[in-house]
Design goal:
The protein is α+β, with helices and mostly antiparallel strands. Helices cover 47% and strands 18% of the residues. The strands form 3 sheets. A 4-stranded antiparallel sheet has the order 1-8-3-6. Strands 2-7-4-5 form a 4-stranded antiparallel sheet. A hairpin with a 2-residue loop joins β10 and β11.
């Protein structure tokens, strides 16, 4: 048996739920204000964007995107952190980048419509806001500031991946580990030539970043510890002398050979016997000069209405 809810009760329920909905909406706008590419947009625009988003909380190690999946949405990291990685065979993973709160991912597939090139999973519990690609492209079309931010991000990601590719091909394992430590130190902040990296990545995670094995990373971190440049404090890594590590990186880079200008070779006159074709080719410059003189014999720019009798 069905019972109808009186109109007055339904209205009262909607009124009681209105403050909660307003609070959720305000929290959503506040979260989007922390996203770098959306900074500068007014509250009304942010509310419109929030209404187009799906808000999802992901647990640690839960996958958000699978490579070659059908998902083309763009994701804003409101809280937490996610990791972009790819399988490298034999159970190994290559970590492409970590995406902290305030950043986004998935924009490449939203722009070109192609499948994602890597997996994305939550490093820790994270709150994400996702929107369909059509809505994201509409934002790019209507808001120049967002479009400018995205273009700069795309350019920066190409440069970052190019630098990593060069490092993988030209740097030794030791140097790659040093560069990764310096990257983490700069993200954590450097004060008085030292840096404390909270929630430091494991040796396996560092190995996935720099394309080597966990054992190689362990050996190099131990060696830096013996030299007094690095120490572990609980779950943190403390880089005690950033300048010294930068010096090690500078000394490990291969020296560029000095530029040597190639001496020009003076043409020499050919004195040997030439064939009829070679003699004709040698005469061409003189014939061209003769023809030019005849064509312009009445002054610059004026053509004579006849053809030179050359080569007859």
């Amino acid at each position: 048996m069905r019972y109808s809810i009186p109109q007055e009760m339904a209205t009262a329920r909607r009124r009681r739920g209105a403050p909660k909905r307003r609070a959720i909406r305000a929290a959503a706008v506040l979260g989007l204000q922390r996203v770098d590419i959306l900074k500068g947009l007014d509250a009304r625009t942010l509310r419109e964007i929030a209404d187009q988003c799906n808000w999802t909380r992901y647990k640690r190690n839960q996958y958000v995107i699978r490579r070659d999946g059908a998902d083309r949405d763009v994701y804003f990291v409101i809280a937490g952190m996610v990791r972009v990685s790819a399988e490298a065979g034999r159970g190994r993973q290559i970590i492409l980048r970590d995406v902290p709160a305030g950043e986004l991912f998935g924009e490449h597939s939203a722009i070109d419509g192609r499948a994602h090139m890597a997996d994305v999973f939550a490093v820790r519990e994270s709150l994400l806001a996702s929107m369909p690609p059509e809505a994201f492209r509409a934002i790019l079309a209507n808001h120049a500031s967002v479009r400018e931010h995205v273009l700069r991000r795309l350019s920066g990601s190409v440069r970052e991946l190019a630098d990593r590719l060069i490092d993988l091909g030209a740097q030794r394992v030791q140097s790659r580990v040093w560069l990764e430590l310096l990257r983490l130190a700069r993200l954590a902040g450097v004060q008085a030539n030292a840096s404390r990296i909270e929630r430091a990545p494991t040796h396996r995670e560092i190995a996935s970043h720099v394309g080597t094995s966990r054992e190689e990373v362990t050996r190099e971190l131990s060696r830096l510890g013996r030299k007094g440049l690095l120490e572990r404090a609980g779950r943190a890594l403390v880089l005690r002398d950033v300048a010294a590590l930068e010096q090690l990186v500078a000394e490990s880079r291969p020296e560029q050979p000095p530029f040597r200008e190639i001496a020009s070779v003076e043409p020499t006159e050919f004195t040997g016997v030439r064939s009829r074709r070679e003699r004709r080719a040698a005469q061409q410059p003189a014939l061209i000069r003769h023809a030019r003189g005849v064509f312009f014999e009445h002054g610059p720019g004026r053509l004579v209405d006849h053809r030179p009798d050359v080569g007859r």
